Amino acid sequence: EKGGYDWFMRKEIYEQPRAVADTLLGRYDESSRLVLDEMRITENELRSIDKIVVIACGTAFYAGMVAKYAIEHWTRIPCEVELASEFRYRDPIVGPTTLVVAISQSGETADTLMAIRHAQEQKARVLAVCNTNGSTIPREADAVIYTHAGPEIGVASTKGFLTQLVACYLLGLYLAQVRGTKFGDEIAATMAELQAMPAAITEVLEAIGPVLDLAGEFADAPSVLFLGRHVGYPVALEGALKLKELAYIHAEGFAAGELKHGPIALLEDALPVFAVVPPKGRDQLHAKVLSNLQEVRARGARTIVLAEHDDTDVVPYADVLIRLPKVSTLLQPLVATVPLQVFACELATRKGHDVDQPRNLAKSVTVE
Ligand code: M6R
Known about the structure:
alpha/beta, binds 5-amino-5-deoxy-1-O-phosphono-D-mannitol, repeat, EC 2.6.1.16, glutamine amidotransferase, transferase, glutamine-fructose-6-phosphate transaminase (isomerizing) activity
């Protein structure tokens, strides 16, 4: 049932183009309006929402961080992201006009479930983003967007994460449609970009060779850092989490702008530092990440740079270059995460670790 792969995780990484395509399937009606099947919250109710709170754990939390960037940008509804395990213990401000979005691959994570129950006690509406039909979280939620990743067996979330991103983008676009913050053709243009993502992810997987070589090169690194900005920041956090849970290596993800506020002191000779470079756009993020890379290299660390394939500006700052397809900034996590998943999987298997069942971890964490 591993379909010719040695590990479920590797199989699931390679299933991602299909999983993303399936999650996008059937989201349009005949009049080109976005439809979300199990959105049992009415359009009127969605128009009265004045705040969104995303709650999730682990990798799903990082999907939530990306969701915040997309949802606020497209809908202008204030959106917070909170670790589910923290949520109910701090007397959060939620009520009938709050939409709580609970992201959980398994649908059984106790921290997330308890947070949902707390939100419902405060009369908030709860939407679940979930991969498991009939699990507890979508059963208790008012509405659900199912991700169609298929069963995820590996403890490390891979296709679960990418499909959670897709579901969050769909939610953002749907809210924009309902509330009229984006025109139909703008929504259609982003949907077309999303439809092109399976091919873009396939492109990343087909050019993965250099990432496999990297795993050999850094197999003995005691620590690895990951930098990103904007939606590249949660990608950095996800890259670090994958490495921790699979390879048992200390790893940290940082918002690149924070480097100078402390983490720069960690930099030393030969330390591997991954950086997700945002597409060149109207803002200055691209240039700012390049100047971060310059600071990193000046201290002897080794830079592994993920950047668009025609981005020549990065060349002087990269010890190793990993090329990404050209996609818009908000969607970049769908391609930028993939090499980091492969790196962690490859490094861990080279060390002889069981990547499907890493030590001390369970696939769904059903205790608080
Ligand atoms: O099933 P869930 O999405 O609720 O699980 C949340 C986390 O436990 C999960 O993402 C965990 O962090 C993974 N092991 C990450 O690879």
